[in-house]
Design brief:
Layout lengths: L23 E2 L1 H7 L3 H4 E4 L2 E4 L1 E2 L2 E2 L2 E4 L2 E4 L7 H4 L6 H9 L2 H13 L1
Antiparallel strand pairs: 1-3, 2-3, 4-5, 6-7
The protein binds iron/sulfur cluster (SF4) (2 copies).
One iron/sulfur cluster binds next to helix 4.
Length: 111
């Protein structure tokens, strides 16, 4: 595993930032999210994606121990593919943007 991969995803969150089409929500994801699904997604034509706040997934929040996903147990399949240390994870670390770093910095201050 690359040396710059954080030991704990709660000190990172890099894979929870992106463009408006960052996290696709397929039909099975939508069903898993349950009654709240419609409030969590935005639509582009007939495709659903998780809502972002600027470039941050709306479901990423600050917690005392760092950052965490509000819907971790129900998160879409696209998020489940991000195994810490995987090629996908490393690609997100390479792309980590200033908004992600600023959000993480706020989490450290808030804890
Ligand atoms: S999977 Fe990788 S990019 Fe995502 S939070 Fe964990 S360490 Fe960061
Ligand atoms: S749903 Fe959770 S794991 Fe997926 S991008 Fe949003 S905060 Fe990250």
């Amino acid at each position: 595993m690359r040396e710059d991969v954080p030991e704990d995803c709660r000190s990172c969150g890099a894979c929870c930032f992106g463009t408006p089409r960052h996290v696709r929500v397929w039909g099975s994801d939508y069903a898993r999210l349950g009654d709240a699904a419609e409030s969590m997604v935005h639509w582009t034509a007939d495709r659903a994606f998780l809502k972002l706040v600027i470039s941050r997934c709306e479901q990423l929040e600050h917690r005392a121990e760092g950052v965490a996903c509000r819907i971790y147990d129900r998160r879409p399949d696209a998020c489940r593919e991000f195994i810490r240390g995987s090629a996908a994870c490393e690609a997100e670390l390479d792309r980590r943007n200033p908004v992600a770093l600023a959000f993480l910095g706020q989490a450290v201050v808030d804890s």
